[in-house]
Amino acid sequence: MINSEKALSPIDIRLALRSWVEERFKINQNDLLIDELGFSNKDPNSTVDSSFRADLTLANGRLVGFEIKSEKDSLKRWTSQMNAYLNVFDEVWLCVHGKHLESALNITPKYIGIIVVDNFESLALVRVAKNQSLNNAYDLSGLLWREELNDLAKMHGIQVKSRTTKNEVREILAENLDIEIIRTFVLKQLKIRKSYQVSSASLTVS
Q: Which site among 107, 170, 184, 191 is 20 to 30 Å from 4 CA-CA?
């Protein structure tokens, strides 16, 4: 067995997980895979949603979040992380080292998918994730930047004053818009950001 000094890091596992996701979900050019997407901000004094971070996010007409627990990690924070994921993502997966598998199965609801990874970067499906409907409109809107929130409000005739804080705008939108409208807009904006990043990178190279 490989010793602990050679145990895979979360980054190593994420690279292996990306390959697994690309194959299982048949990723195409219209789908997005995003590393370390911050979400679910619980600090009222902060405008950046980084209380939790999804290790990997798939945006392909829905939001799929993946949390990684390496051999050196623990499951102490998983309960709070899991609840945060369920507020934002349509489908949630836990990619866990074999060391934590038994505990993960005991504390994780059956609608959350589980993947097990070993020290050789091999991944195996333990349980398939199911679509769930526990999303919270306020938390979901936290994936949007302030300018994007303003655009969403304007699109639906909702007036937002310049002095209104980001979190207050989120509250207004959550109260006045159906969650499906917010989800569709979030997915659109994530793709727009990616397109902009690709265009900027091309200009820099040229």
A: 107
**CA geometry: angle 188, 50, 185, nearest 5 deg:** 15
> pLDDT tens digits, residue range 136-189?
999 999 999 999 999 999 999 999 998 999 989 999 999 999 999 999 999 999
Burial of 168 (0-12, 13-18, 19+ CB in 10 A): middle
The torsion angles phi and psi of 194, rounded to 5 degrees, stand at: -65, -45
CATH class of the region 8-127: alpha beta
What is the rounded distance in angstroms from the CA atom of residue 142 to the CA atom of residue 190?
12
User: Token pair of 168, please?
Assistant: 């207050």
Q: How many CB atoms lie within 10 A of CB 53?
A: 17
CA atoms within 13 A on the CB side of 57: 23
Q: Would you say 184 and 202 are in contact if contact means Cβ atoms under 8 Å apart?
A: no
Q: What are the residue boundaries of the structural domains of the chain, listed by start?
A: 8-127, 137-200
pTM equals 0.88
